[in-house]
Amino acid sequence: MYEHEISNSIPILFALSTCPRCNRMKKFLQNHSVSAKIIDVDLLPPEEKKQIFRFLLTSNPTLAFPTLLVGTIAVIGEDYDGAKEALNL
Fold it and tell me: CA 75, CA 32: separation in Å to the nearest integer?
């Protein structure tokens, strides 16, 4: 799951559509012209949601949102300094 994005360091943002922190991170990415794959986990079908949760547990055991993956680096929550570092901004 997401092997292509991870191996090519394509940013993936796992978010919740109604989460204010997630929406601020989406805006941060947009403001910095970062082309990221954005996945609103709460809008997915139940089986796909379960797959995402299992996938996220390896890099984010608390399953906190937002979670930004850049390669093997996970930036959890509103850590904009961490996001800048992971994205080389």
Answer: 16
Distance CA 81, CA 61 (A): 21
**Cis preceding-peptide flag for 45 (omega within 30 of 0):** no
Cα torsion at 15, 30, 76, 40 (round to 10°)? Answer: 10
Per the structure, the complete domain to which residue 27 belongs is given by: 3-87
Domain of 43, CATH number, reads 3.40.30.10
* Per-residue pLDDT, 82: 97
Token pair of 77, please? 């929550």
pTM over 0.90: yes
Which tens digits make up the pLDDT trace of 17-68?
Answer: 999 999 999 999 999 999 999 999 999 999 999 999 999 999 999 999 999 9
Nearest CA among 9, 25, 36, 19 for reference residue 79:
25
Number of domains in the chain: 1
